[in-house]
Specification:
This protein is an alpha+beta fold and 239 residues long. The protein is built from six helices and nine strands, in the order αααααβββββββββα. The protein is elongated. The model has no long low-confidence stretch (mean pLDDT 91).
């Protein structure tokens, strides 16, 4: 049903939809304009029947939508580069955020990149017990967009299971984004923003994993663990 149309023009009957489906594009092209608009609006907004037209406009402030429309060319620039060479699972090493003053503990989390329709997204997960942080069960998941801007890779995401923001900026990677081989290593700086408190930044290093994403074990390990060589510890400002 349409909401911005006269009362006697707010429904499309099932028989009309059947004719459109059976008789194809020519029938749709010749249909009444208000009926075509109703179907288009449905395909834009219906979460139960998502298509490439789906735009959940009702969940976003109208001011944001207007701003995005006005600045579409500029906002699209960081998303224009093909980042599919990132696709796959990574192990991420960084100083443990639960004990920020210490530099002898390394957090291992898992990171997944996926590209679809020219858009690259990421998901990072942590799931471990930290015996130096009141034996707390740390369970975090964050998802967001991957962008290329100012010659850096930028990961900007939000918490899935809590109110939180994650920002990763990778200034070094191997191999080339437009080369024949996948990216196998990333390094740079990250920040997690959660609560009204100091939110320090940390260096990070990420390596492509031979394990599937779900099988990468997350943990906080001592810096003396053999998986952390001198290069990694130096990048984390631990060596």
């Amino acid at each position: 049903m349409g909401t911005a149309h006269s009362r006697n023009a707010t429904l499309i009957t099932s028989s009309t939809l059947v004719r459109w489906q059976q008789e194809g594009l020519e029938r749709v092209r010749n249909a009444q304009s208000h009926k075509k608009r109703l179907v288009f609006e449905f395909l834009e907004r219906a979460p139960d029947f998502q298509t490439n037209l789906y735009r959940p406009g009702g969940q976003l402030p109208s001011g944001l939508l207007a701003y995005a429309a006005e600045n579409a060319v500029r906002l699209a620039q960081p998303l224009a580069k093909d980042l599919s060479k990132l696709d796959g699972a990574f192990e991420v090493f960084r100083p443990a955020w639960t004990t920020p003053a210490r530099r002898d503990r390394v957090l291992v989390s898992r990171l997944l990149f996926r590209t679809s329709g020219g858009f690259t997204r990421f998901r990072e997960e942590q799931d471990y017990i930290d015996d130096a942080y009141h034996d707390a069960h740390i369970l975090e998941a964050d998802e967001g967009a991957v962008m290329f801007t100012a010659a850096n890779l930028v990961l900007f995401g939000f918490g899935v299971n809590a109110e939180r923001v994650k920002l990763y900026v990778a200034d070094t990677w191997q191999d080339a984004l437009n080369g024949p081989l996948p990216i196998i290593r990333l390094s740079g700086t990250m920040m997690g923003i959660s609560g009204r408190r100091e939110n320090p930044s940390f260096p990070f290093v990420a390596f492509r994993s031979k394990k599937p994403f779900a099988e990468i074990e997350t943990a906080v390990l001592p810096a003396s663990d053999p998986r952390f060589d001198e290069e990694v510890l130096s990048a984390l400002s631990i060596a």
